Amino acid sequence: MRIPGTTPHLRTPRTLLRPFRPDDVDGMIRCGKDPEIVRMFGGSPDFDEPVPMSRDEASAWFEHVTADANPLHWAVQHDGRFIGTARLHGVVEDDRRARYAVGFHDRVVLGRGLGLEVTRAVATYGFTVVGLHRIDLRVLAYNTRAIRCYRRAGFVEEGRERESAFVDGTWHDDVIMAMLEHEVAAGR
Ligand SMILES: CC(C)(COP(=O)(O)OP(=O)(O)OC[C@H]1O[C@@H](n2cnc3c(N)ncnc32)[C@H](O)[C@@H]1OP(=O)(O)O)[C@@H](O)C(=O)NCCC(=O)NCCS
User: How far apart are CA 178 and CA 161, in angstroms?
Assistant: First the structure.
């Protein structure tokens, strides 16, 4: 497998995936906190409308993402602005497998096909450059937007973990999805 020493730049028609940089703190503050997005990540927000993110919260987030030595962890930029993150993590070299995670923090960009572009780019990079055989992911069953995006990119539903997440006082299932190296063309 060919895991790069530093985070590579990946371009899609409308996004740039790049290493994190200090002004992503300002980008994260601009995104703020949206209750729907928090729920899609499995959180239980105590607010019903978007609320601002403090500089302390954004700085703590930045420290957390930059403490990750994984080079396959990207900041996603659109129209020159930070909008979210994507990563391949949990790489198992012997099995040539990894797990995919993506999330936008800016609600105005949701549902415009950017997630599909990013997912296709990361999957293509993972299979063709890194040499992965399998990329899998888990997604909350109620996150239908994400599931449709992953399906369009070529991920296949493999199963369901029942009541594996407790969100807003209710148990929810996780859906397990995966793509294999020979399936990447299907997501193009
Ligand atoms: C998941 C995510 C990356 C997908 O990116 P996106 O740009 O929003 O998705 P896309 O526009 O590429 O595709 C969305 C699909 O869902 C559909 N969709 C759009 N809005 C929707 C909504 N409110 N509910 C259900 N489906 C919706 C779109 O029509 C599209 O499906 P189609 O191609 O079959 O028509 C993004 O929504 C996101 O970051 N969400 C918040 C965090 C999150 O959920 N992260 C994933 C955790 S596993």
Answer: 14
